[in-house]
Write a structure and sequence with these properties.
312 residues; mainly alpha; MetI-like fold; 2 domains; globular
């Protein structure tokens, strides 16, 4: 196991180097001139040249690349071009709000989708199964924006159960007052596709030979599903969850914008609109690193879930 981890960590280095080079040259040659963007339409050539010198854009490309790599290694990305706020401080202040909302969404989504999909797989082929599949298909066809508008109108305006928007400095207040409505809506939306996906995982396992052998030995269908099918289907489920994990560090743009949550997702959206390159670059690099680390952790979990998995 230790040798596998060292080898995988070593293999991440060229991947990370490739990501860093790609991000640097994309923003360098295809993102437009930041000095012109910051200067505005009425800026003179002298003002644009002064901005370019202030940002270090007049230096040789190799020197700019070295500064970029140094920023990555030191976790210090300078300041936002739009707000003049430290990018490191921006991450530290925006990320907690994103995690406060996105972590419950991910946990509830997995905790509800797995047993619900297992229940649907148990009654496969029945009228209940068909009705649930039709309902999930309809739910998938509706835009998340519709859920937000209807949810805010019904639960906030009509019933007055939750505030429409807002945020505070207290984590407990945010979890109990401001986060429940966006979490409820997001889980409701994600439950339909996750249920269909996990149901397909369970049905694939139900068709395997070991299930027929278990039935021949006299095991009940419920026992087969809970003790054998569920465990073998955990590998594709873990893969699906691993794909979703990096998203909790960025958050949902729509959730944070429509509910006025001062999270990282809304800040990234604002940075894109303002061409705030330091913020966008930092988010891109960090998400790439998080994705690689999550994939490594998922591979290790494969071995824990199924001892037959060999890590090479």
């Amino acid at each position: 196991m230790a040798a596998y981890l060292v080898r995988r960590l070593w293999q991440m280095i060229p991947t990370l180097i490739g990501v860093v080079l790609l991000v640097f040259f994309l923003f360098k040659y295809f993102g437009g001139d930041p000095a012109e963007i910051l200067g505005g339409l009425n800026a003179t050539q002298e003002q644009i040249a002064a901005i370019r010198q202030q940002l270090g854009l007049d230096r040789p490309v190799i020197e700019q690349l070295g500064i970029f790599v140094k920023q990555i290694l030191s976790f210090e990305w300078g300041k936002s071009w739009a707000t003049n706020e430290s990018v490191a401080h921006l991450f530290a202040t925006r990320l907690p709000a994103t995690l406060t909302v996105m972590t419950p969404i991910l946990l509830l989504e997995v905790a509800l989708a797995i047993p619900f999909a297992l229940m649907v797989a148990y009654v496969r082929g029945s009228l209940t199964d068909r009705a649930i599949m039709i309902a999930t298909t309809v739910a998938l066809s509706i835009s998340f924006l519709v859920y937000v508008i209807v949810g805010q109108y019904f639960f906030a305006f009509r019933l007055g159960w939750f505030p429409v928007q807002g945020w505070s400095d207290s984590t407990w207040t945010n979890l109990t007052t401001y986060a429940p409505l966006p979490v409820l809506l997001a889980v409701t939306v994600s439950l339909a596709p996750q249920t269909r996906l996990y149901r397909s995982f369970f049905l694939d396992e139900i068709g395997q030979d070991y299930v027929r052998t278990a039935r021949a030995k006299g095991l009940t269908e419920r026992s087969i599903l809970l003790k054998h099918v569920l465990r073998n289907a955990l590998i594709p489920i873990l893969t699906n969850v691993a794909v979703s994990l990096p998203g909790i560090f960025v958050g949902s743009f729509l959730i944070e914008v429509f509910f006025s949550i001062p999270g990282l997702g809304r800040e990234v959206l604002l940075a894109v609109n303002r061409s705030d390159y330091p913020v966008i670059q930092a988010v891109t690099i960090y998400i790439a690193v998080i994705t690689m680390v999550v994939n490594l952790g998922t591979d290790v979990l494969y071995k824990m879930v199924d001892p037959r998995v060999v890590l090479k």
